[in-house]
Amino acid sequence: MRVRVQLEPFDPGAELTAFTGASAGAGAVVTFTGIVRDVAGGLNRMEIEHYPGMTEKALAAIADEAARRWSLTNVQVIHRYGPLAPDDMIMMVATAARHRGDAFAAAEFLMDYLKSRAPFWKKELTRDGTDWVESKAEDEAALTRWQD
Question: Does residue 25 come out as left (phi exceeding 0), alpha (psi in the -120 to 50 range) or beta?
């Protein structure tokens, strides 16, 4: 299991190759890469803040939870912070399992958590001003399917 919170960009192809190589015995690998999208107000950039140490610990805990819930052979979470422009890659989740159902479910679980509960604070700077990004009702609702 690997969790990285980083300022610098990452290469999803290189990450997938390394992840797959470290996932011996897997019959399925699922990846998702999140990309900063423009907003109606004309996004200049997004700024992501976090508390070093706390963030990595929280992400490691949710990755451990995914590994406990599903039969994963490997899991990786990468999340960037700092200033990001539209079309920059913001995060990547990769899961490996003997069977695709576990890999898909675990990846969705991790993405839902990252969207709603991960300790990141996002600010959008647009041509119309600056706003902190608030949690959306549909993102919160997505979490309910993972409750025990």
Answer: left
Mean pLDDT by 10 residues, the chain (148 residues): 95 97 95 90 91 95 95 97 96 97 97 91 91 80 75
- Give Cβ neighbours of residue 148 (< 8 Å, ≥ 6 apart): none
Q: How many domains does the chain have?
A: 1
Does residue 53 belong to any structural domain of this protein?
yes
- Residue 148 domain flag: no
CATH number for the domain spanning 111: value is 3.90.1170.40
| Residue 83 to residue 56: CA distance in whole angstroms | 19
| Helix (H) / strand (E) containing 26 | none
The pLDDT, as a whole number, for residue 128 is 86
How high is the pLDDT of residue 41?
Answer: 66
pLDDT at 148: 67
Structural domain of residue 96, as residue ranges?
2-133
In a domain, 141, yes or no: no
| Cα–Cα dist 99/97, whole Å | 5
Strand ranges of the sheet holding 72-80, from the earlier edge strand across to the other edge: 2-6, 72-80, 89-97, 28-35
